[in-house]
Design a protein that fits this description.
This protein is globular. Strands 1, 2, 3, 4, 5, 6, 8, 9, 13 and 16 form a 10-stranded mixed beta sheet that branches. The chain has a 6-stranded antiparallel beta sheet with strand order 12-11-10-7-14-15, with helices on one face. By secondary structure, the chain is of the alpha+beta class. About 40% of the residues are buried.
């Protein structure tokens, strides 16, 4: 097939792909009219996607983890381009939310091309978009340590080791938070802003979203606590009981501003470690991304 009507962005370093799976995916993409673009550090995804959109292409598939999907989505927000996902990363948040199987890439690819299209909210943090969450405190330390161990350990072993080290260092952050005309100061080891709300009553490590498009952010925080108390909170979270924890707060808003005593703030955006200039502005961008999924 000589005519290409879309692009498959493939991150060969994303993790769960074998060489034969990767080869099969490339062949399937070609047979379905997709050009394959390998994602690597330094690639200008915005320019590639902008050029494709100008040429009338509308199908874009990201094969990788949440980080790969995050980078591809940056150029698709607010356009007619439709994003499909083939999840081969560690957590695969968006795929899980869209009911795309995370352990069957062939079915995922089929959904990425032919699944039902829906329009979802995204968030914006200091000019870049995010699909899932912005996290401060302990979680950015987990991301940092996980990257350090990725080349020498298996995916989950790197993750477990990173969590242990992050709990050993146990970083906290002091924030001045402005939202809905209110100003609050918070000292915490865990502060999360997500696009739409999570269903925190579910058990397990990855909480599903309750909705994709109610036009609001969800802000979650814990009061400052000891390491032992924090481990107890994590245990309650895994059992779907975090709402019972004293000092746990959940707030819905459309935008907020975070400031701190430091010039730059380290946070995790869709699982990727980023240093941003303060103040940090976070807002919802309603119904701004087209995606394919089962839900």
């Amino acid at each position: 097939m000589s005519h290409r009507d879309g692009i498959l962005f493939l991150n060969p370093r994303a993790g769960t792909f074998s060489a034969s799976d990767e080869s099969s995916l490339r062949t399937l993409a070609y047979e379905n009219g997709l050009r394959v673009v390998e994602v690597h550090p330094g690639i200008d995804l915005r320019a590639i996607i902008r050029e494709a959109l100008d040429a009338g292409l509308r199908k874009f598939v990201a094969a990788g983890g949440d980080g790969t999907i995050h980078h591809v989505a940056q150029a698709l927000v607010g356009t007619e381009g439709v994003l499909g996902v083939v999840p081969v990363g560690s957590v695969n948040h968006l795929a899980r939310d869209l009911d795309v199987p995370v352990d069957d890439w062939r079915t995922a690819f089929e959904i990425a091309l032919r699944g039902s299209v829906r329009q979802i909210d995204v968030g914006r943090v200091n000019g870049q978009y995010f699909l899932n969450s912005v996290m401060l405190g302990v979680y950015p330390a987990v991301s940092e340590f996980r990257e350090r161990f990725r080349s020498t350990h298996s995916r989950w072993r790197a993750y477990v080791k990173a969590i242990r080290l992050a709990l050993h260092h146990f970083p906290h952050v002091t924030l001045v938070i402005e939202y809905d005309g209110r100003v609050e100061t918070l000292r915490t080891q865990m502060f999360v802003v997500s696009v739409n709300a999570y269903d925190l009553s579910q058990t397990g490590a990855v909480s599903p979203k309750t909705t994709f498009n109610d036009g609001r952010l969800a802000m979650y925080s814990l009061s400052f606590m000891s390491r032992l108390q924090f481990v107890g909170v994590v245990a309650k979270y895994l059992r779907g009981k975090i709402a019972d924890v004293p000092g746990f707060r959940s707030i819905r808003t459309t935008s907020l501003r975070l400031d701190t005593g430091r010039r730059r703030l380290r946070l995790s955006i869709d699982g990727e470690l980023v240093d941003l200039d303060t103040p940090v502005q976070i807002a919802i961008v309603p119904a701004s991304l087209l995606v394919r999924g089962m839900r």
